[in-house]
Amino acid sequence: MLHEYDLTQLIQPLCGWFLQNARKLPWRDDPTPYHVWVSEIMLQQTRVEAVKSYYTRFIKALPDVTALAQCEEDVYLKLWEGLGYYSRVRNLHAAAVQIMQEYDGRIPDDYGTLLKLKGIGSYTAGAIASLAYEKPEPAVDGNVLRVLARVSADDTDILDPGFKKETERLLRELLKECCSSPKDTEPEDAGKESARRDGSEKAEIPSISPRIFNQALMELGALVCVPNGAPNCEICPWRDLCLARKMQLTDKLPVRAKKKERRKEEKTILLIRDGDKIALHKRPSKGLLAGLYEFPNKQGHLSESQVISLVRDMGYSPLRIKRLADSVHIFSHVEWHMIGYSVLVEEEAFATKEQKQRAAMEELVFADAGEQKEHYALPSAFAAYRKDI
Ligand code: ADE
Predict the structure, then answer these.
(1) What is the DSSP string of 229-252?
(2) Which residues, other chains included, contact 153 with Cβ-Cβ below 8 Å and sequence gap of 6+?
(3) Ligand 1: which atom is nearest the Cα of residue 39?
(4) Would you state the pLDDT for residue 349?
(5) Are the C-beta atoms of 385 and 295 separated by less than 8 Å?
(6) Is the CB of 222 inside a 6 Å radius of any atom of ligand 1?
(7) Which CATH number describes the domain made up of 263-386?
(8) Centroid of chain to Cα 9
(9) pTM for the complete prediction?
(10) Ligand 1 atom closest to Cα of residue 44
(11) What fold, for 2-246?
């Protein structure tokens, strides 16, 4: 079990391995609090390879907290388009405003203060405090829970919030115990035995740089002790210390309770065309995909004739209709099972006054492919229909 396992023995092999094997990643070049914050938020639920180009573009467009706080919703949503979990960027923006108003534009270095910011939970607070400010705080995500459950052969459900809390407590204790202050630690000293310079009785405890240690744990989870498929135990710095390996339990650990089944929703997606323009609708400011744009759509799978009368009710005159391919999009809690229609409507110039009024009530914007690409953030859920624009 994790609480019975001697964590100090893990430090030196882990940090030594990391210094030899760390990937070169854009956010590691200059780990300012802002860079760490943005990258860690992007990396939640998203693969490193997918994040790289988004991160670089985001930092170029919004290089600091001030720029982010001043950014318009449609602009930051566009920068996030395709990454998913859009509440992340909405919270990032809200927290930037909070930092300008309450902290004079400086991202706090204190774990407890960071936790008060919108969208910042224990993982992100720990990551900013440790990676940017070298504070002895843990940053525990699913990767860290997995590698620690395996090395200590702990069969607790890693999705149990109690296990995460306990892991954070143990790592915080370890970091506080084994950390030298930032100025004592040269990067090349990190993880070496006896890095303490005062020759105190703690000399036998390896000294940790919180930045190196926390990143090393994440890196081990990403490159060696991987979540899907067999872990690469032969190259693991903990191969002789790992109880799951010793007990041949690596395929059984970690234990993860089954998640609830996702809800299934049927939808009909409408590509309403007027010449070379296509209708888009801004989603409400609350709920799934808040504030993003979508193709107009309705609950259920509608027939061609139902779509024609619906489009008429919306204030447009359908000229031609074509069924598009079916598509499925999976969110964390819900699945959309979509059918689609392309509907060519009469040019606006020919619409009656009443049709125009009804159309205005639908609050659609008509954009050509170039405008859509440039200005309107359309989530990946609609990707299958975007190619039909
Ligand atoms: N996953 C989460 N945070 C990460 C980081 N800083 N580097 C690499 N992978 C990560």
Answers:
(1) S---GGG-TTTTT-HHHHTT-TTT
(2) 1, 243, 244, 246, 247, 249, 253
(3) 6
(4) 67
(5) yes
(6) yes
(7) 3.90.79.10
(8) 32
(9) 0.88
(10) 2
(11) Endonuclease III; domain 1 (1.10.340)
* Ligand 1 lined by 40 (C-beta under 6 Å): yes
Distance 237 CA to ligand 1 centre (A): 19
Parse the chain into domains and list their residue ranges.
2-246, 263-386
- H or E segment at 329? strand 318-330
Supply the mean pLDDT for the chain: 92
The secondary element (H helix, E strand) that includes residue 279 is: strand 277-282
For residue 295, the cross-strand partners are: none
Rounded Cα–Cα distance for residues 70 and 223 (Å): 38
Is residue 75 lining ligand 1, measured as CB closer than 6 Å? no
- Whether the per-residue pLDDT at 376 is higher than 50: the answer is yes
Question: Do the Cβ atoms of 193 and 204 come closer than 8 Å?
Answer: yes
In one-letter notation, the amino acid at residue 240 is: D
Would you place residue 229 in the very low, low, confident or very high pLDDT band (cuts 50, 70, 90)?
Answer: confident
Question: Residue 94 carries which DSSP code?
Answer: H
Interval 8-56: pLDDT, tens: 999 999 999 999 999 999 999 999 999 999 999 999 999 999 999 999 9
